[in-house]
């Protein structure tokens, strides 16, 4: 591929950094951002690191009208010995391109994207918080920018990366959550965009999430769009079950996201000699197993929380109390190991981390 | 509701208007646009007509990440006696609010929106093209603008209206189109966002549409997401069938858009004493009726084309040639009547048009 010269325009008006232990998610941004443009005849070109600031778009820009857009989410972590680590970033760029394919967006060069991300984070190194549990959240995304109301793929795009320091997801340590099993609204269906990380998949869940929150749930567990029977995933997390000593997770069926934490947990458990069965899982069968006292642990997995133990599942008026609302042993061990690897405290035997230097 | 003072900032650098008979769809915009802001504590406020031009947004603006957005599409028409007419605009604002409800966006005041739209078009009167078949396309839309990466409804929005003169959809008169019946990709499913006019519904169709175009089809006919059996709608059109002398259209099942042209055609046919049956329609049953020689006319309906006769449906390698690729009598009559009402040539007995003056 062509080589791309990265231009860096440094921000001379640096912002104050927030207090590290209480940063709300996704509202504080660093001093710089990354932008690369796409044009049909030029391909991706003009990669730049510039001061963080507003972007200017034509009001007819396609992103505002037809939602042709994809994004990613990953984190950079500070180690105790002062290094900055990324966690499997190449998997995020691979998934970005998979999402782009579904949305008819031209692929980016994954190696180049990673190389430039490293340079951006190097420049923003002081923004990576150091307090335990904190990290620098990384949001790569692509938006379609043609000023054109004709429905169809854009001929111009912007690929951007913005960075946001985030506090601990569980400030007081891991905390089991209450989840509503959604049987009215649908997130995704076979043949749709469920396996892509694209904007429309998220806002389509707001109504269900608001209803669930009114009844004291933290989020919803989506069921399949066809039979409203098979377990898919939580808002921004995949889901795992320990039932009668065995670990299960819904299979990648085309309508759920291929989570990188999910993938890592399967690989980690396998490395411990614990098999994980990926299969179609019916909610009624889960309930039966629950009634038989066999559901031992349930946990969500995703970049935000890494592991989020589920203490309660509410399904059609039935309450499934999991492990007496306590953190399961396996959940805790997975959390400690993965966050340990991410922050350099546990040896990275699976070669997952990438150092910025 | 509160009254809102509309502020008008006139554009002093007016653009040249394009040649009326060959304006490509959605790429030319008028001199002004409309913007109204929303903030939780203020509600919708500060309505303004300003010179058309770029808008500036934080790169973390929610519209770029989670797709919380809705839009509408309607047209203003020039009559031969120099008036400018809107076609059932109150139905578009009603639908905009329905879409907003699904996307957890606060509703706008429909009367106010119509009143301000009229003022905008009055100011842009010279942009409404006069050549037969042309019109001024109107695009109201709402975007979520909080700079916040936390998944959830925004607390700020922009409601905007942009205007674009458009040439004739069928420059040489009505022209039957070839349509691919899509049985792999899915547009929408019960419990999803199919009934809302929201960005993500459109880009999710690009892959299917590109595949269909490669094989010579103009667009796809979507089937239901559950059984891939029941007929839903075409890209931006609802669909009607005349079978054995009777008129049918898929029922509003929650996953298709409640088209205003669809509604108008049903009302118009009823006023002519022709009943329309809205029901679940299976594609295999359509094919059976086709083989029995009973499918007389098929046409799409929407703001863009009004009536778009379908000359051929391609379904799983089977070709259904409709009415020998010719325009059906009913299709033509509906087209002539509705476009006639829209342009003041046919008496508006159903009270559908709204004059700008
Ligand atoms: C819908 C959805 N499912 C699952 C995940 C978990 O994926 P990962 O482990 O790659 O963060 C995410 C998000 O990040 C998500 O948005
Ligand atoms: C998905 C979809 N279906 C149907 C229609 C037809 O609706 P209307 O007649 O209101 O234009 C449109 C668009 O305009 C549409 O986008």
Automatic annotation (TrEMBL), chains A, B:
Reactions listed under catalytic activity: L-isoleucine + 2-oxoglutarate = (S)-3-methyl-2-oxopentanoate + L-glutamate; L-leucine + 2-oxoglutarate = 4-methyl-2-oxopentanoate + L-glutamate; L-valine + 2-oxoglutarate = 3-methyl-2-oxobutanoate + L-glutamate
Positions of modified residues (N6-(pyridoxal phosphate)lysine): 197
Biological process according to GO: isoleucine biosynthetic process; L-leucine biosynthetic process; L-valine biosynthetic process
GO molecular function terms listed in the Swiss-Prot or TrEMBL record: L-isoleucine-2-oxoglutarate transaminase activity; L-leucine-2-oxoglutarate transaminase activity; L-valine-2-oxoglutarate transaminase activity
Pathway note: Amino-acid biosynthesis; L-valine biosynthesis; L-valine from pyruvate: step 4/4; Amino-acid biosynthesis; L-leucine biosynthesis; L-leucine from 3-methyl-2-oxobutanoate: step 4/4; Amino-acid biosynthesis; L-isoleucine biosynthesis; L-isoleucine from 2-oxobutanoate: step 4/4
SUPFAM superfamilies: D-aminoacid aminotransferase-like PLP-dependent enzymes
Top-level taxonomy: Bacteria, Bacillati, Bacillota, Bacilli, Bacillales
Name of the protein this chain belongs to: Branched-chain-amino-acid aminotransferase
EC top class, as a word: transferase
CDD domains documented for this protein: BCAT_beta_family (cd01557)
